[in-house]
Amino acid sequence: MKKVLSFLGPYRIAVGVALFFTLVELGVELIQPFLMARIIDDGIMAEDLSVVLLWGGIMVGLSLLAFVSGIINSFYAAHASQSTGFDVRSRIFEKVQSFSFSNFSKFPTSSLITRMTNDITQIQNTIFMSLRIMLRAPLLIIGAVIMALIVNFKLALILLVTVPLLVLFLILVMRKAGKLFRSVQERLDIVNSVMQENLAGIRLIKAFLRRKHEAKRFTNASANLRDRTVSALRLIEIAMPVTLLIMNIGIMAILWFGTFEVQTGGATVGEVVAIINYTMRITAVLSVFSMIIMIFSRFKASAERIADVLNTDADLTDLDHSDENIQILEGRIAFKNVSFTYPGTHVPVLKNLSFEVNPGERVAILGATGSGKSTLFQLIPRLYDVDEGKILIDNRNITTMKLQNLRKQIGFVPQEAMLFTGPLKDNILWGKEDASMEEMMEACRNAQIHETIIELPNKYDTLLGQKGVNLSGGQKQRLSIARALVRKPKILLLDDSTSALDVKTERKLLDALNDYQCTTLMITQKMSTTMNADTIILLDEGELLAKGSHDELMNTSSLYRKIYESQLGEERKE
Ligand SMILES: Nc1ncnc2c1ncn2[C@@H]1O[C@H](COP(=O)(O)OP(=O)(O)OP(=O)(O)O)[C@@H](O)[C@H]1O
């Protein structure tokens, strides 16, 4: 909670002003029963109209002051709460951007979305409500008890017994409710996760007629959320009748002893009315305590969830001695005894892997599904760090380069072509923000997508839907290749990026790559692509099985021969 509250720091003036005007409102509220006692005792009982008019006028004036104070308070409370929410959201976004993939395994996407939306809204609402009314509640209770003691000490002793008991009870409820609301937020994460998967995979769901199954999955998650919310709310709702019962008993006791005191001259009628009035105000505040408990419990749960993200250190960062200016001049790559296991798992995906790739070489990486090809790729731009061994580029350990600098010089085309909502050209400029129109078109021509783009009604300004939904699979692949080519990388990593292209288009694309002086690593399942590579690396269950040219492997590797023959067989059948 402290972590989140520290975000209020820059807005301390707004918080101070809001609190000051809360105190003004509170002061007016506390003084009113006192003035009422004066009107009754010195005005009505003494039949003096001028006293009634004087104190009555003062009461109206004070009410106006409270009204204006309320407006100013709202203004500053809104400013402080919304700005704090904005800052927390920006900080979380920044933090998430710095996360490594292993950080992401701790926080699923849907949970991060809930934290950045729902949890932050809870925090904004709580800060606003606190500055507006909630801080008034404890102050009003303390102030009303003190004022009641001033008005008539003996009668107010009843409040000194009932109020602390109730406050203790409510604190206990709040503690329990805090835990329940944390699990409410966790269940909300699950609902969001199911919904997110559903929307992302809606085409697949329709194609596989999985609507009923998915609807059931969603209903289960939603019912879990409902049940947990209901039990949290139930706990809070019992707080209200208990509060009302105890406070009403208190009022009865004040009336009972008050009548006795008035008869014996220990209290005036005005004093009894004033103390009843203070008790009623305390009761009103305590009866909305259930709402306050709920808001605070949710705030506590949300603040903890946000602090979890903010306190997580990005575990893949630059080393202290990493050099900003190292340029990849040649593009020589070497894996030296590299082993890697995904965080949170125990089975090594890459085992003692060693190989070298010469500058400008075109290497095909071949292997069964799950043999570790994509993993190998992800280690080169340091999306993960190796567990053992090292990766060298131009004979330098990649950890000695600044992350940003390393990644800037690598063109990475992932297995799933990922495009973003917005103009098509912005997606290409992702590769190099300051690329000229000519550079962009050159990259697109080489990626064999320029002709397709210029046939679109808005050409390079065509708006892409989410994940490039309005493009075909092959078009998306070629666009993401263009995005990598526009930065003229020294190292190009193509992760099965030509799988959706026909042989002729792929041939043209690979020929165009000859113009780039870069080392190219291609993961591929196609023998036609493999045969055109200078070198082939054959992986099997994370180990290097063979390395060499097509001809060499045909002579030395029985597995390679088998793959070749199985594909050639298929081609013959076709
Ligand atoms: N993020 C991850 N967390 C844990 N295990 C993973 C993760 N990504 C991949 N793996 C596991 O690592 C192994 C290698 O996966 P990888 O994606 O590198 O294989 P691949 O050879 O590229 O397969 P494919 O040809 O099907 O793309 C697989 O067994 C996979 O289950």
Automatic annotation (TrEMBL):
<dbReference type="Pfam" id="PF00664">
    <property type="entry name" value="ABC_membrane"/>
</dbReference>
<keyword id="KW-0812">Transmembrane</keyword>
<dbReference type="InterPro" id="IPR011527">
    <property type="entry name" value="ABC1_TM_dom"/>
</dbReference>
<feature type="transmembrane region" description="Helical">
    <location>
        <begin position="12"/>
        <end position="32"/>
    </location>
</feature>
<feature type="transmembrane region" description="Helical">
    <location>
        <begin position="157"/>
        <end position="174"/>
    </location>
</feature>
<dbReference type="GO" id="GO:0005524">
    <property type="term" value="F:ATP binding"/>
</dbReference>
<feature type="transmembrane region" description="Helical">
    <location>
        <begin position="278"/>
        <end position="296"/>
    </location>
</feature>
<keyword id="KW-0547">Nucleotide-binding</keyword>
<feature type="transmembrane region" description="Helical">
    <location>
        <begin position="52"/>
        <end position="76"/>
    </location>
</feature>
<feature type="transmembrane region" description="Helical">
    <location>
        <begin position="133"/>
        <end position="151"/>
    </location>
</feature>
<keyword id="KW-0067">ATP-binding</keyword>
<protein>
    <submittedName>
        <fullName>ABC transporter ATP-binding protein/permease</fullName>
    </submittedName>
</protein>
<feature type="domain" description="ABC transporter">
    <location>
        <begin position="333"/>
        <end position="566"/>
    </location>
</feature>
<dbReference type="InterPro" id="IPR003593">
    <property type="entry name" value="AAA+_ATPase"/>
</dbReference>
<dbReference type="InterPro" id="IPR039421">
    <property type="entry name" value="Type_1_exporter"/>
</dbReference>
<feature type="domain" description="ABC transmembrane type-1">
    <location>
        <begin position="17"/>
        <end position="298"/>
    </location>
</feature>
<keyword id="KW-0472">Membrane</keyword>
<dbReference type="InterPro" id="IPR003439">
    <property type="entry name" value="ABC_transporter-like_ATP-bd"/>
</dbReference>
<keyword id="KW-1133">Transmembrane helix</keyword>
<feature type="transmembrane region" description="Helical">
    <location>
        <begin position="235"/>
        <end position="258"/>
    </location>
</feature>
<dbReference type="InterPro" id="IPR017871">
    <property type="entry name" value="ABC_transporter-like_CS"/>
</dbReference>
<dbReference type="Pfam" id="PF00005">
    <property type="entry name" value="ABC_tran"/>
</dbReference>
